């Protein structure tokens, strides 16, 4: 075997190994948001069944129909990834959505609103309100019914799409 073919073979295996490691890191990031067995059997810290109107005011036009709500923090990298994915997927699927973004005293949510506000509705939610709702994990995806009650709480967009379709089909007002 020549040194060129050995170098080519090593380069090929290096590229394959790098791609595999990259895919495993993405999978690890997704798995970090799945609940553990002990968490999946309890609803502590969950917004499930809570009505958003009991905690804050949301523009009425956002709740005229069942809706997907992305609960985000402006400093959460996974939240930004979820926002990009949602902006690309949900309008094509004709699924209504908006984002609740954590508003902080340092105003870090303002650049977030400036960056994404043209592409989707965004409502700021105070840290105090998030605490009262027992929300401490970002990103979070809610499916709200027409009354504003959290009908489902999820972490992955694919699951949110599936459950939205199961609960409400393709209806849009």
List the main descriptive attributes of the protein structure presented here.
single chain; 173 residues; alpha/beta; Glutaredoxin; 2 domains; five-stranded mixed sheet; 6 helices; 16% strand
Describe the structure.
This protein has 173 residues and is an alpha/beta fold. It has 2 domains: 3-32; 48-168, Glutaredoxin. The protein has helices at 3-31, 37-40, 77-89, 109-116, 127-132, 157-168, and strands at 67-72, 97-103, 122-126, 140-144, 150-154. The chain has a 5-stranded mixed sheet. Strand 1 (67-72), helix 3 and strand 2 form a beta-alpha-beta unit.
Backbone shape: elongated
Uncertain segments are 37-44
Q: Structural class from helices and strands?
A: alpha/beta
Q: Give the rounded overall mean pLDDT.
A: 85
What is the strand content? 15-25%
What does the largest sheet look like? 5 strands, mixed
Look up the CATH topology of the largest domain: Glutaredoxin
Instruction: Sketch the topology as an H/E string, one letter per element.
Output: HHEHEHEHEEH
CATH architecture of the largest domain: 3-Layer(aba) Sandwich
Number of strands: 5
Strand order of the largest sheet: 3-2-1-4-5
Number of domains as seen in the coordinates: 2
Number of helices: 6
Could you write a compact summary of the structure shown?
The protein has 173 residues and is an alpha/beta fold. It has six helices and five strands. The protein has helices at residues 3-31, 37-40, 77-89, 109-116, 127-132, 157-168; strands spanning 67-72, 97-103, 122-126, 140-144, 150-154.
């Amino acid at each position: 075997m020549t040194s060129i073919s050995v170098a080519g073979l090593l380069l090929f295996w290096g590229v394959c190994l790098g791609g595999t490691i990259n895919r495993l890191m993405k999978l690890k990031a997704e798995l970090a948001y799945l609940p553990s067995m002990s968490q999946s059997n309890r609803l502590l810290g969950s917004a499930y069944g809570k009505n958003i109107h009991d905690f804050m005011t949301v523009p009425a036009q956002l709740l005229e129909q069942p809706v997907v709500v992305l609960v985000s923090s402006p400093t959460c990298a996974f939240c930004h990834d979820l926002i990009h994915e949602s902006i690309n997927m949900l309008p094509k699927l004709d699924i209504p959505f908006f984002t609740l973004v954590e508003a902080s005293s340092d105003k870090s949510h303002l650049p977030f609103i400036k960056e994404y506000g043209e592409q989707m509705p965004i409502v700021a939610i105070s840290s105090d309100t998030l605490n009262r709702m027992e929300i401490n994990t970002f990103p979070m995806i809610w499916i709200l019914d027409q009354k504003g009650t959290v009908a489902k709480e999820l972490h992955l967009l694919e699951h949110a799409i599936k459950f939205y379709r199961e609960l409400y089909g393709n209806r849009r007002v």
